[in-house]
Protein 1
Amino acid sequence: MALAMCVLAVAACSTGPVKRVSEPTASIQQLTVGADGQWTVELRLQNFSSVPMRFERIALDLRAGKESAGTLRAEPGLTIGPEAADTAVVKLVPSAAARLTIADALADRRSLDYGLEGTLVASPQDRKARDFEIRRNSALSPVPGLPGVMR
């Protein structure tokens, strides 16, 4: 009986760690307003899975304050390790209303709410790509000493 218990215990250990795939998230790490009015958005992509994830496509509608700014689209082809994060840079020509909203927030040196809604397409290690729905609401604040930059 003791031998059987030892064999079962060793067999249980040989299966290795559990491979868990969790929903990734996206948030804005930094938004920079260019002299030409174009925005450079650094998206922070967070992998909460216990395996690496390859981020294939991004399609996220961006809201600045209450104004629709446009859609952030990219194909970063970025692999992020387990329980880690990285950034993808996306350029956006925002709507006129969103441009005014962020310009006012920068001029007044105040925070601005933002929202992201859409899809991240990512593939867990050795698996088929999946669509992950993203809904994120947060805020950005002007960065002292860096004109046109919000974090």
Protein 2
Amino acid sequence: MKVLVFHIGSDRYGLRLGAIARVLPAAGLKLLPLAPAFVAGLLDLHGEPVPVIDLSQLAGAPALQLWFDTRIILLDYRVDGSSRALGLLAEHVAGIETIDMASLSDSGVSGAPFLGRVASSAAGMLQLVEPEGLLTDAVRALLFQPQEAPP
């Protein structure tokens, strides 16, 4: 399985390529007042607002710093049976790596539903991020208002 590798602090994480719609350079975001701290803001993507999550803060690490290799990873996120754009702000995006499915094992840690299985390689341990576990129902409701039917 191919994954996009990024870091939260010094730890390596991966997101399945099949879950990714696009990868963009970091951009200016509109802040969302009263949103949880891990909501970095809204990205203007061709006139459409896209909520962006700071993966560092979501994982309980210090707020993300902008580096030359910071990226916004766009997902087609499933909300109420439809697909909506969701951005993930990720530090130190390192590139694509192939993970041997047989090398994946349970982390043995619960409590962060967006963190999946782990793999070890010569490059070190890598933990998968599971997009469906990223947002609670309350945060989903805050970020994704019901879409109006076209007239």
Protein 3
Amino acid sequence: MSQLLEVKSLYKSFTIHHLANNIQALNDISFTLDEGKFIGIVGKSGSGKSTILKLIYRTYLPERGEVIYNSERFGSIDLMKASEREMIYLRQYEIGYVSQFLSVMPRTTAREIVEQSVLEMGKSLDTAKVTAEEALAHFDLDPELWDNYPVTFSGGEKLRLNIASAIVKKPRLLLLDEPTASLDNDSKVKVREVLEKLKKEGTTLIGIFHDLEFMEGLCDKVYDFHKGKCVEGIKV
């Protein structure tokens, strides 16, 4: 089994200028992740959990450190030094990200959002239409909502749409920031079914969770973040 990701001595801080305060979000974080494995991350609010995902996705840049990703297209690449063009490609074809919050595109329906994700992978419009409907149905989004604008959706509906839009690409690496937040138990079951299927098909995953029961039997290792540091993972 080959290594897909290596996080090496990442440091990240944020400055709150009006308070003249510097917050150390990550303090020498290192771990590795093999292909097809699932790492879970737990920790209190402010412990650096979301920051590590945003660094891997390159939304943030660190003060120092490396994130070595074994890309299908580019080979071994440090995401912290990758060009914007390379990152755009990786986000489109190899690395997915599910946030708690849906960035609503204006005048774009729920159906069109998911279809666009499929089209970005080079699939045909017919395939995109079928795949989008299957994903929306799986996450129990009412068909009456499919051709509506998500700005009118509840928090849970937006989150389910966000997950559907990300998973239809079947990325090599999928980053999940609280994918079960604001979901009822039935919706959590649907999410777990999809994550289990993706993992069986070879997707590598990193997920932030508060629901420890949800993680049981799904994650291969769990890291506990505390004040910018992480405790060595344990099997679950």
Protein 4
Amino acid sequence: MSDIPKDDFPTSVELVPATDDDIPEVVRLTNLAYRGSDGDSAEGWSTREKYLTGDRTTEKLLRNDLSVSPHASLLIWRLEGESGIVGSVWLEPQGDGNWYLGSLAVDPARQNGGLGKKLLSLAEDWVRERGGRHINITVINVRETLIGWYERRGYYDMGEREPFPYGDDRFGVPQRDDLCFVKLQKKLV
């Protein structure tokens, strides 16, 4: 757990674009945040290992996603005075002021200290500064705690569902046959 008190973060902290050299660390952080322990660290409250197994992403997949989505931004977050990435997020314009937010990840060893809430707020500010009016996200339907976390931050269920891509292990190997994505949205203006 972080020594930084909840909601007491350095004010000069900002999101910056990930460099090619950051990709391996982003992949490691994302897989830890989405799948839990690598054997040495505690599992975070937001891990999905009960629903999906395997890696959430790989360097090859992430580099491919970046190459086919030239307008997307993979942003990283470092705390002032500390080494290493404590968070990352994918932001992509969808047109008409809509943006997609995906792969929000905070180091599981530092969860429950307000870092996720702060990272989400920084991502929303980043989108706002670029003229974004809405942020869209998708969350796996069985992640009720995570859906509730987003709803407490102003996101609402759009009533739309997207099918889970069974047979495409890009998101991991499903452990259930009832998965789908819940579409959530937040109005920024």
